[in-house]
Write a structure and sequence with these properties.
By secondary structure, the chain is α/β, with parallel strands linked by helices. It is built from 15 helices and eleven strands. Strand 6, helix 7 and strand 7 form a beta-alpha-beta unit.
């Protein structure tokens, strides 16, 4: 199977994953004060928007394909506008920071990079349950002389900077005494990295589903390290701060429906595959493998989860991947607002 390989010119996401001492944005990141208090919450409506802009990525979004939020928002007089597909989390966050997206989901790494770049408009609104890590991997061709992670020193490795792939590679290298600076990063979007790997333009690829599942079917590969015991957070739903604080009820409705369809999806992987097939244009057999390796449900932002995300951020700082230490709590809503957006069904 030959997939065209094209390195298109892309807008450099300077504020998310390109840093220098001179170019680093030094915006402060104070917590935005609560926009409602106890008395105001009783007298003011909890949403003002007439349109909600929801982001989706090329890897597929079960909320979008099942159209579960549209009926709820229509009843509230709100129009749903799906924005995308975005190739990965960094591009989604760039759009959110620009005001084009109100809610979207990404892995643990993109919001850390955005916060390190001084972006304060992007906040955490819910967690996602972690997978077993089988949906990601650092892969080479089966006949490659590279046999283990330690062999990656000095090698060119293709992946999306500022994404979960970045974290998987950095942590895997750390396990064998190497640093991210010991390898050569080839920064490509997930689909570009897949194409480059298939056509032997790069020897090593940090892959994730659905692209990984597709390549596993058509190319003999060796997975040097999957994300087991590394992909422990599962990622997050993010929101645009101004939208969230002014539309608490809309955010709660979205998260409620996202968790409902997530519960259904985890019980019905074959049906999930069939639902994704028309949009992702992949075989149902590939997509069923993707569905069985993916998790869909949401979880609360507990102090423990926030602390774990802080450890990820601290790791990036210690490894000199991001240039300054950040506090994840600066991107968390005040308690009253967070409680207002969190459905009771999310544990």
């Amino acid at each position: 199977m030959k997939i065209p390989f094209s390195l298109q010119r892309r807008t450099v996401l300077n504020r998310i994953f390109q840093y220098s001492v001179v170019g680093l944005f030094t915006l402060s990141t104070p917590l935005v004060g609560s926009l409602i208090n106890n008395t105001q919450a009783q007298t003011k409506p909890s949403f003002t928007a007439k349109v909600i802009n929801l982001a989706y990525q090329t890897s597929g979004d079960i909320v979008k394909v099942k159209k579960v939020v549209e009926p709820r928002f229509k009843a509230l007089g709100v129009t749903v506008n799906w924005v995308g597909p975005f190739p990965a989390g960094p591009q989604l966050i760039e759009a959110m920071n620009a005001g084009r997206v109100d809610i979207g989901n990404v892995g643990e790494t993109p919001p850390i990079f955005s916060q390190a770049a001084g972006i304060t408009e992007v906040i955490y609104i819910a967690g996602r349950t972690p997978s077993k890590g089988e949906n990601q991997g650092i892969v080479v061709r089966a006949n490659s002389p590279i046999k283990k992670i330690a062999d990656l020193k000095g090698k060119k490795i293709a992946f999306q900077r500022g994404s979960n792939a970045h974290y998987l590679l950095a942590k895997a290298l750390k396990e064998v005494g190497l640093k991210i600076s010991d390898v050569q990063i080839v920064g490509l979007t997930p689909s570009e990295a897949r194409d480059a790997f298939i056509q032997d333009k790069v020897e090593v690829w940090v892959a994730s589903d659905p692209f990984l599942a597709l390549v596993e079917k058509i190319v003999p590969i060796r997975n040097l390290r999957n994300a087991a015991r590394i992909n422990t957070l599962g990622g997050f739903y993010l929101g645009r701060r101004q939208f969230v604080t002014q539309n608490l009820e809309l955010v709660r409705v979205f998260l409620e429906e996202a968790d409902k369809v997530g519960e259904w999806a985890e019980k019905n992987p074959t049906d999930v595959a069939k639902a994704f097939a028309p949009e992702l244009k992949l075989d149902v057999s590939v997509l069923e493998k993707v569905a069985r390796r993916r998790t869909f449900r949401l979880r609360k932002l507990t102090p423990g989860i926030i602390a774990e995300q802080q450890k990820v951020a601290d790791f990036y700082f210690q490894e000199k991947v991001i240039p300054r230490k950040i506090d994840i709590r600066d991107a968390i809503l005040p308690t009253q607002q967070y409680q207002a957006i969190t459905p009771q069904r999310i544990r």
